[in-house]
Amino acid sequence: MFSAKLIVWNPTEPSRSEEIDVLVDTGASYSWVSSSRLAGLGVRPTRRLIFRTIEGRTIERELAPVFVRVDGYTGGDTVVLAEPDDNEVLGRSS
Known about the structure:
mainly beta
């Protein structure tokens, strides 16, 4: 695995942004960003979704709309609010 720089910001308050190093996971459908980091940017979750981990466990996490920039590309995205034991990752959608 390798890492990438991801800039994430609040879509309703674009001045609230943060650049983070994330693992690149081409097997992940969504990008995962720390829930505490997103809360610090004022990002609020809008729904919950159930995921199956690579270990076969079922977990439930919140999702939120954000804007992201990675490798020169910018756009709106929906990210998973990662909990403390979750890795921050760049998924296929971003």
